[in-house]
Amino acid sequence: MDAKLLEILVCPLCKGPLVYKKDEQALICKPCRLSYPIRDGIPVMLEDEARQLPPDEEV
């Protein structure tokens, strides 16, 4: 994942910062508890494609 791209990407819902999880190939929004997938090196920043994180999963 390109570092400059990570600096400008925000959650499309709350506009908050995202955390890059390399091992999961995902961008995590902590306030919304959503995990946006990264497919073929491209972040999929669509709410419909995001995975809701369970309350007990650490972010």
UniProtKB/TrEMBL annotation:
HAMAP family: UPF0434 (MF_01187). This is UPF0434 protein NMK_3336. Pfam families: Trm112p. In the N-terminal section; belongs to the LpxK family. One of its GO terms (cellular component) is cytosol. It comes from Novimethylophilus kurashikiensis. InterPro entries: Trm112-like.
